[in-house]
Amino acid sequence: MLLKGKKGIIFGALNEQSIAWKVAQQAKAAGADIVLTNAPIAFRMGQIDELAKELDCQAIPADATKLEDLEALVEKSQEILGGKIDFVLHSIGMSINIRKKKAYTDLKYDWMQKTFDISAISFHKLMQTLWQKEAMAEWGSILALSYIGAQRVFPHYSEMSESKALLESFARSFGYHFGMRNKVRVNTISQSPTPTTAGTGVKGFDQFLDYADKMSPLGNAPAEACADYCLSLFSDHTRYVTLQNLYHDGGFSNMGMSEIMMGETPE
């Protein structure tokens, strides 16, 4: 019961492929009380209502790019949960340019701005809402999911690379203020490529999934393991971890070349 008595909001559960879906299931099993949320369209396209029923919790539609939706969500969540929020997961990302198969050298800029708003600026809007409403409990934890594309070139990841870099910067900058005021920590997790609905929309995803798995000494980290890591960062065991981008990728981020990729058998 790692999270017994803790209250949290989880953004981004769409279906069983979603990392946020796994986090919600494991957080509930670990004793937490949670509220699920996603964009209104996700309630029509996904299965979030089924997850809410399974976990006996409430799911609230909210567009994370709209301050009025976030304000209403935070207020309603505190009413439902009966107090301040102990942890929040931001698991949101979407690129229209990627969906429409636009080359990085021929992007539509209004779509790019939408990508930034959904995938990164929404994180700042969320934290600003939590800050202004003084909704976070002392020693709380705010977490967002990122990807190593923020630091390295992956041609088909398009402007999501810049989105993740911005997301990580927001975590550091806002994390300073949250830490100084009420010891709330803010971190990002740079996860292995994971076959979520968003991930599989990237061109060449299957090939890179295989490449990353062979390059990583431990192999790709699955969604369930990422959920375990999220829970550890929500818990009191990581109270002094903040302003970090934490790699959860089987070691991929520190690899140059592996023997498997060179056609050799590891010793």
Automatic annotation (TrEMBL):
InterPro entries: Enoyl-ACP_Rdtase_NADH (IPR014358), NAD(P)-bd_dom_sf (IPR036291), SDR_fam (IPR002347)
Keyword field: Fatty acid biosynthesis, Fatty acid metabolism, Lipid biosynthesis, Lipid metabolism, NAD, Oxidoreductase
Superkingdom of origin: Bacteria
Biological process (GO), any one: fatty acid biosynthetic process
Keyword Cell inner membrane set for record: no
Binding positions (NAD(+)): 12, 18-19, 92, 164
Active site (UniProt): 147 (proton acceptor), 157 (proton acceptor)
Pfam families, alphabetized: adh_short_C2
EC number: 1.3.1.9
Gene3D superfamilies xrefs: NAD(P)-binding Rossmann-like Domain
Enzyme's top EC category: oxidoreductase
Catalyses which reaction(s): a 2,3-saturated acyl-[ACP] + NAD(+) = a (2E)-enoyl-[ACP] + NADH + H(+)
Residue stretches spanning the membrane: none
Pathway(s) of this molecule: Lipid metabolism; fatty acid biosynthesis
UniProt-recorded Gene Ontology molecular function terms: enoyl-[acyl-carrier-protein] reductase (NADH) activity
Similarity field: Belongs to the short-chain dehydrogenases/reductases (SDR) family. FabI subfamily.
Record protein name field: Enoyl-[acyl-carrier-protein] reductase [NADH]
Species of provenance: Saprospira grandis DSM 2844
